[in-house]
Task: inverse folding
């Protein structure tokens, strides 16, 4: 089976806030959620790559996550780095 293009799962999920990430890469600013609702939604899909995501979520090589909300709003030019 070929791998899907990055972000292909977004076409399959009804909630645009849910992301699927590989667990072997560190991710900052996200919270891991229960993958079962995502798996159930993917099982109802007829897309050829749905099984790829289902297998990854069930094996633990992928995780369902949501980004943490930030109260900060940054405009261009607001961030300065000090050495």
Result:
């Amino acid at each position: 089976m070929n791998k899907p293009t990055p972000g292909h799962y977004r076409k399959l999920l009804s909630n645009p806030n849910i992301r699927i990430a590989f667990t072997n890469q560190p991710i900052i600013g996200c919270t891991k959620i229960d993958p079962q609702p995502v798996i159930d939604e993917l099982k109802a899909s007829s897309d050829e790559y749905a099984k790829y995501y289902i297998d990854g979520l069930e094996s633990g090589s992928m995780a369902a996550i949501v980004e943490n909300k930030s109260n900060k709003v940054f405009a261009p030019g607001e961030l300065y780095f000090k050495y």
